[in-house]
Amino acid sequence: MTARLLLRGGIVLTLGARTQNHAVADVLIEDGRIAEVGPGLRARDAEVVDATDTVVMPGFVDAHRHVWKSLFRNLGVSGSTVDDLRVDHRPDDVYAATLVGLLGAIEAGITTVVDWSDIPAGDEYTKAALEAHADAGLRTIFVHAALPSIKAVRRMPAGPGRRDATSFAWGAGDPESHSLEAVVEDWAVARSRGLRIHAHTGRSASRPGVVSEMARRGLLGGDITLVHCSNLDDADLDAVASSGTSVALTPASEMSSGLGSPPMQRLIDRDIRPGLGVDDETVTPGDLFAQMRAAISIQHGVHFDLKLAGKGGLPNLMSTREAIRFATLDGAATAGLASETGSLEPGKQADIVVLRTDRPNVWPINDPIGAVVWGMDTSNVDWVFVAGHALMREGVLTADTVRAGDLAEAARRRVGTASGLLTTGERSL
Which of 1, 80, 206, 267 is the most buried (most CB within 10 A)? Predict the structure, then answer.
């Protein structure tokens, strides 16, 4: 990593509370952090990247993804079907799946991934996944969710322990599927270790009111991230809002997997600003461009359904400014990393994506933020930096993609054949 790096002459979207966006400006990086943002910066001895005809902005934050399922991305089967393949994975299969999944995230302009790792239990599997995290080079949160109780986890570091750019969290079981007494006990242990708690909730309509009861017992708070939340009732969402609990939505996956429509408008009504995630790639795109478009389209659909029904007091249409924050700064807050990443502000980590504006899919540029949210896709990703280190240069990953692809293909064939999902290593066309 170059000690000093200057991104010169791009449209700069800082998306921060203390720094304005710029039609043309520079971003100076020193020792992996944002040093200065503004026009006409000078930096002696800095490596210069010409950012003309680009948007320079915070890297996307994927607030919830099961990275180990990447071997079967785009297969078109439910995530639960792939869940059944856990027993057929060996540690080297988990490494290959995690590595190729994280490299795909980089290529999509994602700089932070919250990896809900419900892989087979065992230290060798955890070690394999963490080796892939380190080799990929992103900022990640490893959400340990392989065991039914945190008391069975003996080697996960206490507190916000770090392994390179990876921090750790506890992936709790669905509160609706457990007794509240068990939830109270497990969550107390996680908190005693200083771990953030992530929990799936509201995936079915079977037990509304569980989240509001958890709030009454003092379980919710700023160190909790609830994922999905599609079937929470109004009292549940009121409890989330009043407790400062975070929410991560995976809109494309939730719609495709039958979890129900994400409660986009009901969250906005309560000033709950969710992060966005991919979930798993079996039936959903692996980029946040798609998730932003899904989120904003769902909210617009609610607005126009109410309008067609002749209802008054219509909600405002979600803006692209809101959508892009859900995929960056709000996602970082959902992951507990708002002080480190998610916006381009001096002192924060230099987690940056540079997006090309000179491609036919977006030019002419009428509104840079609108272009990112409505028009861009992974083909616009030009440079990706994590802590100032270039993981993608001029549209090309710096990683050994041939090795990663070979490992993933070998693992796909072995697991698919062992499970019977791919009887001969290939699906029928």
Answer: 267
